[in-house]
Design goal:
Elements: E1 2-4, E2 12-13, H1 15-20, E3 25-32, E4 39-52, E5 55-64, E6 74-76, H2 78-81, E7 85-89, E8 94-98
Parallel strand pairs: 1-6, 2-5
Antiparallel strand pairs: 2-6, 3-4, 4-5, 7-8
């Protein structure tokens, strides 16, 4: 399960996703998180994200970070959202993401 995070500059995946897909790191990247209080150095991975058979975000760098206690394993950041149109309907708590 993924969460759209308009406050995240980049897409983030959990260590469980990295492990299950046998991803290999391609370096590290510093990130700031509200709870950490300092910059963290996290592993970075090169991936493709498939939203549907006919739409793939290719050559994306994602960051690995723990999401312990949260119900999702991925934060979809602005690096992906900038490629499409994100429309949030606050009254009904629904959204549409189109590419």
């Amino acid at each position: 399960m993924a969460c759209i995070d308009t406050g995240a500059q980049v897409t983030v995946v959990s260590p469980e996703v990295v492990s299950s897909l046998s991803l290999q790191p391609v370096g590290t990247a510093p990130i700031n998180t509200p709870g950490a209080g300092q910059r963290l150095s996290c592993r970075r991975f090169h991936v493709n994200i498939y939203f549907a058979e006919d739409y793939v975000v290719e050559n994306l760098f994602v960051i690995e970070a723990s999401m312990k206690g949260l119900p999702y394993q991925c934060l979809i950041g602005r690096d992906v959202l900038r490629l499409g149109m994100f429309f949030y309907m606050g009254k009904t708590n629904q959204f549409t993401l189109t590419f």
